[in-house]
């Protein structure tokens, strides 16, 4: 018993020495001195560290491997979802049947009303405005012959009276000159008779000289008397010509004064400005009390019975209208002025074609004269209006909604529940419809619903038709 007990402490010491080979030893206060490791303790510590690093590297690999295994197991043991039966996509559409016939569409165009006749009234004389019409204001209506403005006529009346007085004075002078002319003509007649007697005495004296009854002096005296009387006749003839010239001058003066009188009378008349036709008034520039000069603007008058609509047609439309029955000029059109709840409708006729073709307008300009534009609500200039022009007649065409046309030249007809493309050509438009010709037949149903991807073979159903049952087997297709 004693020997066994004495051996146990030795084993404990050896064990403790092997497990804890390093025991700290203090060398003085605060300092610890480690003894150098023994030869057996150093390799044992390195092995522990290697073992620990190996397990640290192995653990993540085992975790990842375990996760992969679990995932594969779950994938392998998951229940299979039931497969869904594929069904074709069928589009609900609307269709219209094709019907051919003769169509005369109406071209829906737009234009502007313009004045067929307008005049700018200007003052013809100068003076102060003393009176104006109550309708001389923007938007007023004046009747033909109505006085719209009066200018103070005092000076023009005075000019007329002065011209008349001068004309009367000149007429009196003419009478005076004509009386003097008659006197001169009477004196000339008497002087000519006296000259004839003097010539007879001279001839008698000459015959008596040969007989010795009178002397040569007597003959000379009678010759002198004859010359004097002839001189008197010549002077009187000149006086008559002078008086005739004076009369002619006065008659010319009378004509000049008469012209002046007529001019003065015209000026007096022009102190009143009258409307030349039934008109709307605009651009008023004169009122009572204002001084106006010659050619000053008073107002602008627009003929209310002559309103036209200017609108443009394309080259293609112009060609059809020009070659159609009746041509272009004289063709009846309908003008709609869209104001209020209901449009105002006027009848019109195409009056003429524009003088030039403008590339900027992109077509040909036409003018239509409105019939009775002042009836009811009078049509004004500058209004934006709608013009409906009957187009030419098209034979053997089909009218389809514009939504039926794809890419400008294709429509789709329904054959056995599938779409089939047909090439067509658009010959004209009629409101929301188009007139077409092409590879379509009467009675075929044309799709008018817009699809994003239409094409041959696409399955469709008419919206009005009952729904077809689901297709099976070989009828299952990839959405067509």
- Beta percentage is 25-35%
Biggest sheet: strand arrangement = 6-15-18-17-16-19
Runs in which pLDDT lies below 50 for 5 or more consecutive residues are: 1-35, 37-42, 465-480
Strand tally is 25
Distance between the termini: 105 Å
Could you explain how this protein is built, in words?
The model is unreliable at 1-35, 37-42 and 465-480 (pLDDT under 50). β1 (25-26) and β2 (32-33) form a beta hairpin. The chain contains 5 helices and 25 strands. The radius of gyration is 64 Å and the shape is rod-shaped. Helix content is 37%, strand content 28%. With 480 residues, it is α+β, with helices and mostly antiparallel strands. The protein has a 6-stranded antiparallel beta barrel with strand order 6-15-18-17-16-19.
Per-chain topology:
Elements: H1 2-19, E1 25-26, E2 32-33, H2 41-77, E3 91-93, E4 95-97, E5 100-103, E6 106-115, E7 118-122, E8 127-132, E9 141-142, E10 147-151, H3 154-211, H4 216-269, E11 272-274, E12 279-282, E13 291-292, E14 297-303, E15 307-313, H5 315-323, E16 332-337, E17 344-353, E18 364-370, E19 384-390, E20 394-401, E21 410-415, E22 418-430, E23 433-438, E24 445-447, E25 460-462
Parallel strand pairs: 3-25
Antiparallel strand pairs: 1-2, 4-24, 5-20, 6-15, 6-19, 7-14, 8-10, 8-13, 9-12, 10-11, 12-14, 15-18, 16-17, 16-19, 17-18, 20-23, 21-22, 22-23
Helix pairs in contact: 3-4
């Amino acid at each position: 018993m004693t020997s066994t007990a004495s051996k146990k402490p030795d084993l404990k010491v050896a064990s403790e020495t092997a497990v804890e080979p390093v025991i700290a030893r203090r060398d003085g206060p605060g300092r610890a001195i480690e003894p150098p490791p023994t030869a057996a303790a150093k390799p044992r510590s390195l092995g522990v560290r290697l073992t620990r690093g190996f397990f640290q590297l192995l653990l993540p690999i085992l975790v990842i491997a375990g996760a992969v295994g679990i995932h594969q197991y779950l994938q392998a043991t998951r229940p299979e979802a039931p497969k869904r039966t594929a069904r074709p996509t069928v589009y609900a559409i609307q269709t219209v049947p094709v019907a051919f016939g003769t169509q005369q569409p109406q071209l829906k165009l737009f234009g502007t009303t313009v004045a067929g006749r307008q005049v700018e009234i200007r003052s013809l004389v100068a003076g102060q405005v003393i009176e104006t019409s109550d309708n001389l204001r923007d938007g007023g209506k004046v009747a033909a012959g109505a006085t719209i403005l009066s200018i103070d006529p005092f000076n023009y009346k005075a000019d007329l009276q002065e011209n008349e007085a001068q004309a009367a004075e000149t007429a009196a002078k003419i009478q005076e000159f004509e009386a003097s002319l008659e006197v001169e003509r009477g004196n000339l007649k008497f002087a000519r008779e006296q000259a004839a007697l003097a010539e007879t005495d001279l001839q008698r004296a000459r015959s008596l000289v040969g007989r010795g009854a009178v002397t040569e002096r007597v003959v000379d005296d009678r010759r002198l008397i004859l010359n004097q009387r002839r001189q008197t006749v010549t002077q009187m003839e000149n006086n008559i010509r002078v008086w005739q010239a004076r009369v002619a001058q006065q008659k010319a003066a009378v004509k000049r004064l008469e012209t002046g009188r007529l001019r003065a009378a015209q000026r007096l008349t022009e102190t009143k400005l009258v409307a030349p036709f039934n008109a709307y008034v605009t651009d008023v520039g004169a009122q009572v009390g204002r001084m106006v000069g010659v050619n000053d603007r008073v107002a602008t008058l627009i003929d209310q019975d002559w309103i036209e609509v200017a609108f443009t047609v394309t080259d293609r439309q112009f060609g059809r209208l020009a070659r159609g029955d009746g041509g272009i000029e004289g063709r009846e059109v309908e003008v709609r002025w869209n104001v209020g709840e209901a449009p105002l409708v006027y009848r019109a006729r195409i009056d003429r074609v524009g003088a030039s073709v403008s590339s900027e307008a992109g077509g040909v300009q036409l003018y239509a004269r409105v019939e009775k534009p002042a009836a009811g609500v009078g049509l004004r200039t500058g209004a934006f209006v709608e013009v409906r022009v009957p187009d030419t007649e098209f034979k053997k065409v089909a009218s389809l909604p514009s939504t039926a046309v794809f890419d400008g030249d294709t429509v789709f007809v329904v054959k056995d529940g599938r779409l089939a493309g047909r090439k067509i050509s658009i010959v004209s438009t009629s409101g929301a419809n188009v007139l077409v010709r092409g590879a379509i037949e009467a009675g075929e149903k044309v799709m008018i619903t817009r699809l994003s991807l239409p094409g041959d073979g696409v399955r469709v159903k008419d919206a009005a038709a009952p729904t077809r049952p689901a297709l099976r087997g070989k009828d299952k297709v990839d959405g067509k």
